[in-house]
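Example record

The entry below shows one chain as it appears in the dataset: sequence first, then structure tokens.
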Amino acid sequence: MKSVVIIVMGVSGSGKSTVASQLSSALGVSFIDGDNLHPRANVEKMATGTPLTDDDRFPWLQQIAQTAANYTQRGLSAVIVCSALKRAYRDIIRHACDNCVFLFLDGDRALLAKRMQNREGHFMKVDMLDSQLATLERPQDDEKDVISMPVTLTPEEIVTQTVTLLAQ
């Protein structure tokens, strides 16, 4: 497989971390949880239920983009979790990384909220879902580097289908 960074994207509760972890294992590549790249101030802000602004997100997106670029520049592959909710956010990553693919985990609000309510110990609270959905700019047809998968599939099904598509 040519070096590639797969950005597993979507709103909170879509299963990004679960899918990304399984995908990295299936591909035998590094897994990076983008939440760990957030500045501490962002984590604290989200933990209080305060939505991030674009100014808050910019240093985080730059860190995600630089991390992705570091992998492909060294001829390595990785899977990175990053919500990448707006096209402009995806573009920041695209401009830094010469071979990125976005895996968009798409689901409806009711299912996402239910999943979030069943999680324990996560800083992102269910009341933040509406702000994420309002921020979300669904990938458009001209974003040829995006694979969309419905979250109604199991993580294993998403991984299997993604691996197949990446091999084409």
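Notes for this example: The two ends are 10 Å apart (CA to CA). The CA atoms of residues 71 and 139 lie 24 Å apart.
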